[in-house]
Input
Amino acid sequence: MDDMNSEKVEAIPDKEIDASTNLYFWLSTVLCTFGSVPYRTKIYFGREEVTKTDDDLCGTHTSKRPYAELGSVDRGNCLCCVSVESALGAISPGCGCDERRVDEIVLELKHRMRQRGDAAQVRMAEATLDRLEQVDAKLDAILERLAIHVPLSMSMEDRPEYENKLQPME
Output
C-alpha cells in the first residue's frame, strides 16, 4: 500500500513504573504532612490511558486519564527537587531528587501522548477515511464488473423494501 503504513500507530506495550517516595524520607516528613503525602505511588501506562495509584495513611487513591486529556506534561523544579507536572498532579519519586525516574516518566507520557493523544486520533481517523475510499473504489469496480446499476442517491421512500410500509401519522 502507499503511505498508509507509515501512518500506522505502533503498538506500545503496557508498562508500570514505581514512583514511590523513599520510605526514610516519607517517615521523616510524616509528622509535618499528617500522612497526607503518599508513601507509595505506582504509574500504570495502559494502551489508551495512564493510571496513577497513591497509597497514604488515609487509603488508596486512583486517578485515570486518557493520554489525550493529560494536557501539558513537564518536568518541574523547586529548589533541588524535581517532579513530573501534569493533569495527574505532581509526582516526586525518591527523595524528590530522582531526576532519572522523573525524566523516564516524562518521556514515557510524552511518547504515549504522541501515539494516543488527539493528534494520533486525527491521524488514525484520516487513515480510516483513506481506507474507506479504497473500499468504496473496489465496490464500484465490482458493481461495474457485475453490471449492477446503483442509483447515486436514493431516498428511503424510493427504495423498494420501504414501499407501502410508511403510514401517515394520525
Q: What stands out?
A: Helices lie at 23-33, 99-116, 118-145. Residues 1-7 have pLDDT under 50 and may be disordered. The first strand starts at residue 15 and ends at 18. Strands lie at 15-18, 40-45, 49-56, 59-66, 74-78, 81-85.
